[in-house]
Amino acid sequence: MSLKEAAEYAKYKSPLISPGFVQCHATIGTGFYNLEFKPHPEKGVYMSAYYYGEANDL
Q1: How far is CA 22 from the centre of its chain?
Q2: Would you state the pLDDT for residue 14?
Q3: I need a surface site. Which of 7, 18, 32, 37 has the fewest CB within 10 A?
Q4: Which residue stretches of the chain are H helix?
Q5: Contact indicator for 21, 10 with CB cutoff of 8 Å
Q6: What is the pLDDT of residue 17?
């Protein structure tokens, strides 16, 4: 799924999430992360990654 398709899918899923906002969880290496993608009208897409800890410990 492309970022555009994911944004369209998430558009009406929650009133607390703005249109185009996409959030997911991922295991990267041994860490567990919350990834957020937020659209910006002039700069494209911002990505934030929040580290929760070692995936094996959660």
Answers
A1: 4
A2: 54
A3: 18
A4: 3-10
A5: yes
A6: 54
Residue 32 identity: F
Interior angle at CA 22, CA 19 and CA 48, nearest 5 = 120
Structure tokens at 57: 């410990």
Q: What is the mean pLDDT of residues 31-54?
A: 85
Asked whether 56 and 32 are in contact (CB, 8 A), the reply is no
Pairing type for strands 22-28 and 44-54 reads unpaired
Interior angle at CA 27, CA 16 and CA 5, nearest 5: 50
18 to each of 25, 36, 39, how far by Cα in Å? 18, 12, 9
pLDDT at site 37: 86
